[in-house]
Specification:
Blueprint: H1 4-22, E1 37-42, H2 47-59, E2 67-73, E3 76-82, H3 87-92, E4 97-103, E5 106-111
Parallel strand pairs: 1-5
Antiparallel strand pairs: 1-3, 2-3, 4-5
């Protein structure tokens, strides 16, 4: 059985999303390819190291608002961040490893603690 408070919150969320849609707002959780950068960091073993790199990447984005998505497979972490307007400036800020490849807005890094 759903609580009264849960029903009110669910209703408010539904109303808010409906109003956003009616207002023509573009509510998206996808990165804009023109302003996002994907960084693949290999050789990153610990959760503590991953969190530190994610924090650094977050600080490297343009402005105070940012978007980030991360996936981890073994010792490889793939993170897409935005907005990033200048890839060359972004590259110069990478201090957590060695950049091994750059292909447009895709950057490969070997992690170095």
């Amino acid at each position: 059985m759903m609580s009264y408070t849960h029903s009110i919150v669910s209703g408010l969320v539904l109303v808010t999303l409906t109003l956003v849609g009616l207002a023509g707002c573009d509510l998206s959780v996808n990165h804009d390819p023109a302003t996002s950068v994907t960084v693949v960091v290999s050789g990153i073993e610990s959760e503590e190291s991953r969190q530190a790199v994610k924090s650094t990447l977050e600080d490297m984005t343009d402005g105070s608002g940012h978007m980030m998505s991360t996936s981890v497979r073994g010792s490889t972490m793939t993170t897409t961040v935005s907005p990033v307007s200048d890839v060359d400036s972004f590259l110069k800020k990478i201090d957590f490893g060695t950049v091994t490849n750059v292909d447009g807005r895709n950057i490969d890094v070997t992690y170095k603690p």
